[in-house]
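Quick one, T. Sequence first:
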Amino acid sequence: MVSFEISDLIQENRIDKSVYLDPEIFELEMQNIWAKAWIFIGHDSQVPHAGDFYTTDIGRSPVVMVRAKDGQVHVLHNRCGHKGAKVAGKKCGNVAGFRCPYHGWSYKLDGALRGVPNRHGYENTDFDIKDPQFSMTPLARVANVRGFVFASLSPEGPSIEEFLGDAIATINNVADRAPEGEIEIVCSPLRYEHDCNWKMFVENLNDAMHPMVAHASVGQAAKSYLADQPEGTVYPKEAEIIFPFGSSYKFFDEMKVTALKYGHSYMGGQSSIHTGYSDIPDYMDAMEAAYGDTKTKEILSQNRHNTIIYPSFTLKDAIQAMRVVRPVSVDKTIIETWHFRLKGAPDEMLKRTILYSRLINSNASMVGPDDWDCYRRMHEGLQSHSSKWVDMRRGLSADSKATQSKGAQSFGTSDLSFRNQYRVWAKYMNTGTSDA
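Structure tokens:
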């Protein structure tokens, strides 16, 4: 029995600070959001060959993504059907099958129990090696969307197509930007531990009010650099990545923000902070050879900023990078930044993707530590005994209403995406469903 009412924590224009601070609320989130929603597991390119596996968690539940001999990708509970020990202990690898390190129960790649040591001890009992309860059981629902693998611990809920809605356009666009129509994850992720509640990070993704303040030093450095350059200077790739962080409120307002069902959102659409990047000629040649001029222009015309696929990750179509949210506790969150290679594209595209992350997303970047410092300050400031409310009313009177063809919209620095997230958050927390 919880000691609070969700309706007391959420209002149209503000939220109670305990939403970020209360461990009891965090535990309910693990049960009603992370155990019920579609959660991003990984990309199927992480397990390219039979026996390849990758382990992660859905909230507090350890899972393993594995490719079986028939090529199918499974997502299994990383738990022995005997004593419950975690079976796969490494982050990734290749195996012929799984074997529990405690009593040696062995499993096929699809999770089915294959063998039990000293099996005669189970004679004349109700033990049945084919009984699913003794397997590494598959998750209740698993879906693969253009290589993006999602799973849910709950057997009930919307289909993956309904859940994603228009957010699927970002996934499709990332894949379509590859001349061969496929992408693959490369390298290990940039893993960044944040001293904050997971929702602070997710909110910040489409918060367009903070760059001009939190990242002011980056913007000022970019402006000083520009002022010192002679006319006609060809700027390095680092410069065109950094320059937009010195943009104005007007620039971000004109990008607009769009809020979708189930808590998703994105900024931009036709323009974003990546719009001014210089062309890579060999890439354009490869795209036009694959798709033709008209289709290539259509694909590259989509330019969304951060597409938040609530609650578990964010994707950038123009940069081919994603950041995955891994909640650890009420005040600790791990963020993983992963990078995609566009199959059929020149290496220069991947180099730009990785360069962007090194400059912006890493824990030694020019931008990421600014955000980390703000999250930490919020957690410390919210401990005060002043107001219990956190405001999110900016743009409230300007929100458009969602239609069947598009989500609700507002100017870019509006708090629309936050209000949208907490509307869905409250539904999950009250009922364990996100019926939006």
